[in-house]
Specification:
Elements (H helix, E strand, L loop, with lengths): L1 H12 L5 H21 L5 H10 L1
Length: 55
């Protein structure tokens, strides 16, 4: 993800901007963020667990 961010930034700074490289870098970054957020538990997970135990 860090490489994708760096590629996107360097592509924006360059004299000849290639839109395809920027789009691919953003897509890789978004895919990485999706994978990372899937591993993060929800803030409401504890509340849901408590409600299920009470029922």
């Amino acid at each position: 993800m860090i490489v994708a961010i760096l590629v996107a930034f360097f592509e924006q700074v360059s004299a000849e901007k290639n839109v395809y490289i920027t789009v691919i870098a953003i897509a890789v970054f978004m895919f990485g963020m999706m994978q990372l957020s899937a591993k993060t538990p929800s803030k409401n997970q504890d509340n849901q667990d408590k409600e299920e135990k009470d029922v």
